[in-house]
Amino acid sequence: MFTIGSELKGYFDYDGLGLYLRAHETAEIDGVVVDLRNILGRRFLCDGCCCLQLPDLSGPSRQQVPVKGDCCQGPWVPLSTEEQERIAKHLEGTLPYMAPEARAFVETQLAKGKERRATFCRPVRDREGKDLGVTALRLLGRNCIFRVLHREETGLRVRCAIHGYCLTRGLAPWEVKPLYCWLFPLTLVPLYNGRFLLTVHTRETYQFTQEQKGQATKPCLNSPASNGPWLYQSFASELKHIFGEGFYQKLNALAPQVLGRSGRT
Ligand code: SF4
Ligand code: SF4
User: Fold this and answer.
1) What are φ and ψ of residue 107, in 5° steps?
2) Ligand 1 pocket residue status of 41, Cβ below 6 Å
3) Nearest-CA neighbor of 197 among 36, 80, 83?
4) Which atom of ligand 2 is nearest to the CA of 162?
5) For the chain, which terminus, N or C, has the lower number of CB atoms within 10 Å?
6) Rounded to an integer, what distance in angstroms lies between the CA atom of residue 78 and that of residue 70?
7) Measured from the CA of 158, which atom of ligand 1 is nearest?
8) Which of 35, 28, 36, 117 is nearest to 80 (CA)?
9) 41 C-alpha to ligand 2 centroid (Å)
10) Under the phi-then-psi rule, with left for phi > 0, alpha for psi from -120 to 50, and beta for the rest, what region is 243?
C-alpha cells in the first residue's frame, strides 16, 4: 500500500492547508484535530439579520436596494439521497413556513404530479451542461427555495423554512435540514494522515475548506459582535451530536486556557 514518505510530506506541509496548520494552534481530541482559535476563540451567533443590512435606507431608491449578504442566498447545498428523502417526508409540514412564491412553486409542481423531491432538488451541471451526478437544493431566483425573508419590527431577518418547521415540531435541525446547512460555518477538512481538521469557513481558510469567498466572509464571521457567545457555545448541540458528549466536555475544558491565553475571557 502506498504511504506518504518524508519527501511528499514536506510537499504537503507547504500547501495552503499545511501552512495554515503550521501557523495555528491545534489540539487533538478523540482523533479530531481542532483549530483552537476558530472553534474556541471565535464569537459566533446567527441572528439572521446582521447579514441583511441595506446599504442605503435614506435615498429615493430605498425600495430598489437589493437585500444581500445572507448565506441562504445563492447557496450550493449538495443533498445525499437520505437528506432528499428526509426533506420529502416533511415537505407538507414545511410548506406553511416557506415564502409565498416558493410555496406556490412547490404546490403547483405537486399538483402537476411532479415527484416530491424534484420540487426542491436540482441536478448540478457543469458549464457545458453535463450532469455531474450530484443533487443540490433548488434555487428560486437567487435564493434557496426554503429561504424566507421576514420583515420584523427590528428589521429584516432571513429564516429557513425547514428550521422553523423543526423548531415548532420539537425536532433537532439535523433530523430534516441538510448537513451543509446545520453545520455552517463549521467544517471538516480531511488531512493527509487519515484524520481531519475541525475548523470554520473564514477568509483565511476558505481556499482549503472549499467554500466560496463570499460565504466565508459574511459579517457574522468577519465582524462578530464583541459580546456574542463563543462559537463552541453556539454549536454545543451540533458538536455533541457529531462527536459525542465526551468530546464536547474535553473541548469545553480547554476553553478557559485558550481564551485566557488570548486575553479574551
Ligand atoms: S450569513 Fe451568518 S447571520 Fe446570516 S443567516 Fe447565514 S449564518 Fe446567519
Ligand atoms: S435549507 Fe435553509 S439553511 Fe439551508 S440554504 Fe436553504 S434556507 Fe438556508
Assistant:
1) -65, -40
2) no
3) 36
4) 2
5) N
6) 18
7) 5
8) 117
9) 26
10) alpha
Residue with CA nearest ligand 2 atom 2: 160
3-state secondary structure of 199: strand
Pairing of strands 131-137, 139-140: unpaired
- What is the rounded CA–CA span in Å between residue 203 and residue 159? 24
Residue type, 263: G
Asked if 22 and 208 touch (Cβ cutoff 8 Å), the reply is no
Q: What is the pLDDT of residues 132-170, one digit of tens each?
A: 999 999 999 989 999 999 888 877 899 999 999 999 999
Integer Rg of the chain from CA: 20
Closest residue by Cα to atom 7, ligand 1, is 46
- Ligand 2 pocket at CB < 6 A: 72, 75, 77, 137, 144, 146-147, 160, 162, 178, 181
CA of 224 relative to ligand 1 center, distance in Å: 11
Reported pTM? 0.89
Q: Is residue 63 very low, low, confident or very high in pLDDT (cuts 50, 70, 90)?
A: low
Asked if 198 and 13 touch (Cβ cutoff 8 Å), the reply is no
The cell numbers describing 189, all together, are: 477538512
Indicate which residue's Cα is closest to atom 8 of ligand 2: 72
> Each residue of 19-47: pLDDT tens digit?
999 999 999 999 999 999 999 999 999 98
Mutate to test the pocket of ligand 2, among 142, 143, 146 (most ligand atoms within 8 A of CB): 146
CA 81 – ligand 2 centroid, Å: 17
